[in-house]
Design a protein that fits this description.
single chain; 10 helices; five-stranded mixed β-sheet; about 220 residues; about 45% helix; alpha+beta
Length: about 220
């Protein structure tokens, strides 16, 4: 059955207009993006198939062009459109962080870091540099590693902090394993960074670990 044959209140577009985007399922939101299905499948059917194939939206967003385009009904144009949507969301969150106090918009910081890191296949260490009003000055991917570890050098982080004239910093790295729990080395590194940066009057406000759809905050856990 075509989506146009569904009751008006169940069609994704009409449902969004009546109840808001948050009321839609992942498949319904994806169906609106797809716009049309293929022979024998509605856009919602195709969206569900994509979510089953990739497991969730995060993995779908991170799919390589060849893998995405290999699915019947998908193609390079849809791949480009999807990547553009993800990048716009990432930039919008970064703008939100830049225009206000990062501590007063923890949702934007968390969602930005998740979009940036959750699909990465190797560990990546990111630093967010803040001014005295906790506004974002810059965001940098400082170190990249393997599937299970990244070498982080506090000396280099101090140099970058001084370069940006930062007053505070937020750190983040991902766990491709999908387990957000920090390792002993994660805890030790955080303490070492706090000590090193304190010598140049730079505060460490938080350290996030992004793992799959989860995001753990050291500050929220009371570990800072």
């Amino acid at each position: 059955m075509s989506i146009t044959d569904w009751p008006a209140g169940e069609r994704p577009r009409e449902k969004l207009l009546q109840r808001g985007a948050a009321s839609l399922s992942d498949a319904e939101l994806l169906a609106i993006f797809l716009r049309t299905g293929v022979v024998g499948k509605s856009a919602v059917d195709l969206a569900r198939e994509l979510l089953v194939r990739f497991g969730n939206l995060t993995r779908l967003f991170a799919a390589a062009e060849q893998e995405f385009c290999a699915i019947h009904g998908m193609g390079q144009a849809k791949f480009v459109q999807l990547q553009a949507v993800v990048e716009m969301a990432r930039r919008a969150l970064q703008e939100e962080m830049r225009t206000g106090d990062a501590l007063n918009s923890p949702r934007a910081v968390r969602e930005f870091l998740q979009l940036l890191l959750q699909a990465r296949q190797q560990e990546v260490f990111v630093a967010i540099f803040l001014d005295a009003q906790h506004r974002v000055v810059a965001t940098e991917e400082l170190f990249q590693g393997t599937l299970t570890q990244t070498s982080v050098y506090p000396r280099e982080i101090v140099k970058r902090a001084l370069h940006h004239n930062a007053a505070a910093m937020i750190f983040a790295h991902n766990h491709p394993s999908g387990v957000a729990e920090p390792s002993d080395s994660d805890r030790l590194l955080t303490e070492e960074l706090k000590r090193s940066l304190a010598l140049v009057d730079v505060r460490v406000l938080d350290h996030f670990i992004v793992a799959g759809a989860g995001c753990l905050s050291f500050a929220e856990k009371g570990w800072l």
